[in-house]
Design brief:
The protein is 47% helix and 15% strand. With 183 residues, the chain is α+β, with helices and mostly antiparallel strands. The strands form 2 sheets. Strands 1-2 form a two-stranded antiparallel ribbon. The chain has a two-stranded antiparallel ribbon with strand order 3-4.
Length: 183
């Protein structure tokens, strides 16, 4: 059976998708010893393991990473939505695209690459790193978030309506900025 290009693309993407595991205390049936074992975290992870023929007693090589805090990731995207909904020039972007724009503007979590423009020469360009859970550690994401929020405070907070600015500071600092100054 031949596959379409779209089907091959979906299959290749699924093959790269990480499998999330949870450490559970289990009893080894061969020794009776209680130990910590990695088991699929969700039904989709079980399915991915089955598709990749990762069966019982099969030895595998794995690179293990702890995922980032999903609430912190959602907070960053809420800041992206706030920018899209309230700051001129961000309308029409997705929250993620707004974050990538802020990342590039602030120069946080970016790699500088050179682009050859032919007769015009080589130009340095900031290439934002991936914000994906498996691509950026929690501490790096915290530095990214701190960098973009400092950039927003410096470059965009003055154009926000008072209630939007208050919402921004509440999201970023966990409290209203006026309350923080009074405390």
């Amino acid at each position: 059976m031949t596959q379409t290009a779209a089907q091959r693309k979906v299959r290749a993407k699924r093959a790269r998708r990480p499998i999330y595991l949870v450490v559970r205390r289990l009893v080894d049936p061969t020794t009776g010893e209680e130990l910590g074992a990695l088991v699929p975290a969700h039904p989709i992870d079980r399915r991915l393991m089955k598709e990749r023929k990762l069966t019982v007693n099969r030895e595998v090589r794995a690179e293990l990473k702890q995922p980032r805090n999903p609430a912190f990731h959602r907070l960053a995207h809420a800041v992206g939505h706030l920018m899209v909904d309230n700051v001129e020039g961000f309308e029409g972007l997705s929250a993620h695209d707004a974050l990538k724009r802020l990342q590039r503007e602030a120069g946080v979590a970016c790699e500088e690459i050179e682009v050859d423009l032919g007769e015009l020469g080589r130009v340095p360009v900031k290439q934002p790193r991936s914000l994906a859970f498996d691509e950026m550690a929690e501490d790096e994401f915290a530095a990214f978030f701190e960098g973009i929020t400092a950039h927003i405070a410096e470059c965009y907070a003055h154009v926000m309506l008072d209630e939007v600015r208050a919402e921004f500071w509440l999201m970023v600092e966990g409290r209203d900025r006026e309350e923080a100054q009074c405390a």
